[in-house]
Amino acid sequence: MTDFFKDIAPLSYDPNSDAELAFHHYNPDEVVMGKRMEDHLRFAVAYWHSFAWPGTDPFGGQTFQRPWFGDGMDHARLKADVAFEMFDLLGVPFFCFHDADVCPEGATFAESRRNLEEITDYFATKMETSKTRLLWGTANLFSHRRYMAGAATNPDPDVFAYAAATVKSCIDATHKLGGQNYVLWGGREGYETLLNTDLGQEAEHAGRFLQMVVDYKHKIGFQGTILIEPKPQEPSKHQYDYDVATVYGFLKRFGLEGEVKVNIEQGHAILAGHSFEHEIALAASLGIFGSIDMNRNDYQSGWDTDQFPNNHVEKALAFYEILKAGGYKTGGTNFDAKLRRQSLDPEDLIAAHAGGMDTCARALKAAAAILEDGTLERLRDERYSGWQSGEAKAMLQSDLSAIAQRVEADGTSPQPRSGRQERLENIVNRFV
Fold it and tell me: Cα(152)–Cα(247) distance, rounded to whole angstroms?
């Protein structure tokens, strides 16, 4: 045991408590729509923001001073000790990591691989005495200067090769730990100017890279889901994985729509000009919904601030779409969220996650209540009810000439009908 979280007891559900470090809405054993809340939400802690982020922002340096900050494997093991202590305090079922979060990079690729294998073995021993399992692993293919022009889309074939070798080692680690998914996050898979970019060739390379990932998954018998995380704008102006629709087009282009799903982040959805629930609903309709990164942006600053969620009303519509889609399969709710730079205390890490878990619990219960009430679904069905007639269905199998002839012969003159948006919003407000 470390003393980083000393005097902090495991959190419990106590809706009547005034304690800051308690769950006031998240009851893991509460049954919602026939399933335990813990099994619905499948919470995960993000290793990078919680244990690796030093508190920097674009205009300020490090504010956090953690005892595990350092380059050696001893620091990596201490970080793991603290991480699993926090997992146990929160009672979360999952965690997620990049390779760069959990161990130092070596002087050579071989040394980096050995470091990752060593910490993977250490994680395995920690997991023997913890309920927390691995939701997904991924590779950091964006922070190092070698990736300044991308990884799979880099114009230098040696960078492509280094990225491929890194992904292989991270898939191996994920597989060894029983991870339920593997994520590819193309933070720098984009371009800033066409003056030095062959976007057609870069897209082809990205497609081939993903095909190799899928091939390797099957080669080693990894049963988890391969996920792509859509990422717009930041840091490149033109990202190849801009949003769910863009990713789906990419998957179709390379014949991977049956092999790969998406991990959708709330903050990225907003940066793409969409709502979170839109991206989830679209992914579900296309058959590629997998998992989510839960956070929020600061809407005044206008960039991806990765703050913990605190607005259950906003999240209720997202969970409504997840429930409509049948819930998670191998995915979950990963807190891709970080503390404010001024939140220095160990208790702040616990409080932030507890608040986020409570927010999601309230959102889930509201979403379930809306769905069980059925009014929204009934009104939506009524809006499209005209398409249930035989004539309407036959029209879709017809042609423009026949349709035009019928419209003229019947004197068809449709009148607009109200979309009832404000009334529908009032229905939602009854439950949140």
Answer: 15
